[in-house]
Here is the input.
Amino acid sequence: MAGQLTALSIMQDAPVIPVIVLHKVEHAVPMAEALVAGGIRVLEVTLRTPQGLASIEAIAKAVPGAIVGAGTVRNAADAKAAAQAGARFAVSPGYTSAVGQACRDIQLPLLPGVATGSEIMMAQADGFSELKFFPAVQAGGLAMLKAWQGPFGDVRFCPTGGISPANAPEFLALKNVVCVGGSWLVPTDTLERGDWNHVTALAREAAALPRKA
Here is the structure.
């Protein structure tokens, strides 16, 4: 990915952004290497566990082919800690102007989460038009995204939450969807087994998914 990273360039890199929850830092580097080997370079490591920041730091230092970012960024402190750990972008489950401003201040590309028209308008008012639709399936799924194509035709989405290999193609076929987020690329049992070949196979399948946007 050449040039300055933006939310859009991050979304365009591959059809799927893996949503990664790590409980053991030692899994971070081999997992990231396995995903990159399968064609998935943009990795969202969530801050849902105490190991999140250390895992981001390990990947940033040891896997140059990865573009690692922080998920579950909920406030300015999260954004700053993620950037210090080496995160190159941030993903938030919702949107506040404080999170948006914090990421702008440290020049950390942000993919903010939205679930309603009002949240889209708030994010756009602050200059964000590439958004994470979360939780996608629970908040209206395909029907909601199709409805938003009218009033929000200039917005591009990354639906996340309830996305699977079975329904990902339907979301990727929408003109306002650039990519999807999903946890299926890094199943917990696969991580525990250290079955990195399986992770690479899942990544390869995800990287080959067709998309319209």
